[in-house]
């Protein structure tokens, strides 16, 4: 039997997995490893950053690259410092919706506004999965969680649209049921100059699924496919028609002035004037 070629990117001492049965984190890890492989990126040129939560396990401890496992909600702040100090490195944040859009939402918005050259893969499973299944900023309206047992009365934060409006250079959203499109967008995010976000709608059958009549990974994947709407089609639909749907596609792909390049121009200017 041939050896799985992506193993060269994985820390095998922690395999096969610590993730829950049916979790989409393994799919994201697999696709990310394939993106790095297809782009020919040396893992030594990568710095991975994660926060706290289920999806923070994807880079730490699994991916074989320099990794910073940071405090809750702060991976983008740490990644910003890394990119400023090591501008030639690929700096990648992989973490969850609770970590990046909940407690870390402020950092997410301002990194997009600054357009700093880091790639963020935000794994959105609609819930705080690791800490007990509480409602999250991304929990769909009406969905049940441990803290909304009768249904969520809040409308979810629309992460991709918000980050695109904040100023990111590249934003895309796919589900784990769209692996080839997700692979394409992660590759684009890794090579895009400026802030790039790929939001991945991912299954959590253990916490979200069981409370919402989606008890297995196949149930959730079928639900993703049934409720996904391509962006072009969504633009012709009313808000009422889009209620409960997952809009997928590339939301923005543009060129903007990048933060670190502008910062280094100032630094070089200061040294020239000092001479």
Map the helices and strands.
Blueprint: H1 25-39, E1 46-50, H2 58-62, E2 66-69, H3 75-85, E3 90-96, H4 97-103, H5 105-114, E4 119-124, H6 159-166, E5 170-175, H7 179-191, E6 196-201, H8 205-211, H9 217-227, E7 228-230, H10 231-234, H11 239-242, E8 246-253, H12 259-274
Parallel strand pairs: 1-2, 1-3, 3-4, 4-6, 5-6, 7-8
Antiparallel strand pairs: 5-8
Helix pairs in contact: 1-7, 4-5, 5-6
What does the model show?
This protein has helices spanning 25-39, 58-62, 75-85, 97-103, 105-114, 159-166, 179-191, 205-211, 217-227, 231-234, 239-242, 259-274; strands spanning 46-50, 66-69, 90-96, 119-124, 170-175, 196-201, 228-230, 246-253. With 275 residues, it is α/β, with parallel strands linked by helices. It has one domain (5-274): Thiamin diphosphate (ThDP)-binding fold, Pyr/PP domains (Rossmann fold). Helix 2 links the parallel strand 1 and strand 2 (66-69).
* Beta-strand content estimate: 15-25%
- Helical content band: 40-55%
CATH architecture: 3-Layer(aba) Sandwich
Order of helices and strands: HEHEHEHHEHEHEHHEHHEH
Biggest sheet strand line-up: 2-1-3-4-6-5-8-7
Q: Spell out the CATH superfamily.
A: Thiamin diphosphate (ThDP)-binding fold, Pyr/PP domains
What name is given to the CATH topology? Rossmann fold
Counted by DSSP, the helix tally is: 12
The total strand number stands at 8
Q: What CATH first level would be assigned? A: Alpha Beta
Computed over alpha carbons, the radius of gyration is: 19 Å
């Amino acid at each position: 039997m041939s050896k799985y070629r992506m193993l060269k990117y994985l820390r095998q001492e922690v395999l096969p997995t610590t993730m829950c049965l049916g979790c989409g984190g393994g799919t994201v890890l697999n696709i990310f490893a394939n993106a790095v492989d297809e782009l020919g990126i040396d893992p030594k040129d990568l710095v991975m950053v994660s926060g706290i939560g289920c999806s923070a396990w994807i880079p730490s401890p699994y991916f074989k690259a320099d990794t910073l496992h940071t405090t809750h909600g702060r991976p983008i702040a740490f990644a910003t410092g890394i990119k400023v100090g090591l501008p030639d490195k690929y700096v990648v944040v992989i973490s969850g919706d609770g970590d990046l859009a909940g407690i870390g939402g402020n950092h997410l918005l301002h990194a997009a506004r600054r357009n700093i050259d880091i790639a963020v893969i935000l794994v959105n499973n609609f819930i705080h999965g690791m800490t007990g299944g509480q409602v999250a900023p991304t929990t769909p309206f009406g969905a049940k969680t441990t803290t909304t047992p009768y249904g969520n009365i809040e409308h979810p934060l629309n992460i991709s649209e918000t980050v695109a409006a904040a100023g990111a250079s590249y934003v895309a959203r796919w589900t784990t049921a769209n692996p080839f499109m997700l692979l394409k967008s992660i590759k684009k995010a890794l090579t895009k100059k400026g802030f790039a976000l790929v939001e991945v709608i991912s299954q959590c059958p253990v916490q979200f699924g069981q409370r919402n009549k989606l008890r297995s990974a196949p149930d959730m994947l079928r639900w993703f496919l049934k409720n996904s709407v391509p962006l072009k089609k969504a633009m012709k639909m009313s808000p009422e028609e889009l209620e409960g749907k997952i809009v997928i596609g590339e939301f923005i792909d543009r060129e903007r002035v990048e933060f670190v390049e502008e910062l280094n121009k100032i630094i070089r200017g200061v040294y020239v004037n000092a001479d």
